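#lab-general

N.A. 3:47 PM
ok so I finally got the sequence cleaned up, no stray characters, all 238 residues accounted for. can someone with queue access submit it? mine expired

B.Y. 3:52 PM
send it over

N.A. 3:53 PM
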Amino acid sequence: MTKIKLASTIILCRDYKNSLEVLLVKRNKALAFAGGLWVFPGGKIDKNELAHCTDELAAAKLAAVRELKEETNLNIDRKELLFFRHWTTPVNEPRRYATYFFFGSIDNNVTEVIIDDSEIKDFEWITPQKALDKLIENKMSMMLPTILSLQFIRKCKTVKEAKTLILKEKPIFTLPVIQIENGKIISLFEGDAGYDSGIASTKGARHRFTIDITARSFNFEFHDCAEGIVPINGGMHL
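B.Y. 4:20 PM
back already:
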């Protein structure tokens, strides 16, 4: 069984020119995990961070702050981080991570990014919607947790709006179930009718993300839930 490693990441935002922008960094293509993808700054939680903290969440905050500094040279107070999501890599993946996602903000006057040009090859401050548009236009490649995190805050215009939205709900723990059929990769989430069985064709509620490899497109379905239907459609670079 693949060992699950602990990791942490920050959805770092700023207010800029009457818009909310988020920081994305591009990982080196040579990296074994998520090589060449655009992600939020972050990485593995060190053993010493776990040893010096009272719980895993506190260690995750320390790691998120450290990784942000290492990858971008930006600083943020861990006390300001909001625990937002927790994603665990599906069981059939060769490398698995249990990753804490935090939301954080930084003053626009101190947002000059310096990357190492080794693990991280590029960066961009960008609005969540524009990042999703670039995904559709095949100009950015991302993992599912990144896409859905951007989707969640895509309508927010300010840091304050995003914080308010995030504080309205409790952190969500997600372990997708993956099924591949007819050239499609289907990620099923808790609440989907096929989640427990792993059978995507099961009739009922939908809470899933589908990548059509042949059409190079994606679709997010979320209905029979409190939010109603929340669609995202478009092309995706694979």
